[in-house]
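Pinned message: reference record for Glyoxalase/bleomycin resistance protein/dioxygenase
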Amino acid sequence: MKFCWTTLHVNNMEESFDFYTRIVGLEVDSRLKPNESYEIVFLGSQDTKIELICDSKNEKKEYGKDISIGFEVRSLDDTIQILREESIEIVEGPVQPNPKTRFIIALDPNGMRIQFVERSL
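Predicted structure (tokens):
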């Protein structure tokens, strides 16, 4: 069995698309709009993708505080600076659970907890 993707139902596709492409740095794999109110975007260049789905006819989505998605970054300090410049709130961290790992948690435009993790060798 192979893990393929994580689906996020989002409130605003353009805000979410901007966050995951410009801030997180994911590449667009595919983008489809089967009808006027429904859009699907797959992001990521590796085997595992993030699928964003926006259905403007549905109610606003809210995510729980106990779920997060993690992305590895080269420099946590650079990532913190970018998030601050973009007025994206860091809700936790930096945390260093061991000598080789540091992370922060920020919120995406929908309130999903996103971990940015720096690992040293």
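Pinned by admin. Summary line: The chain has two domains: 1-61, 62-121.
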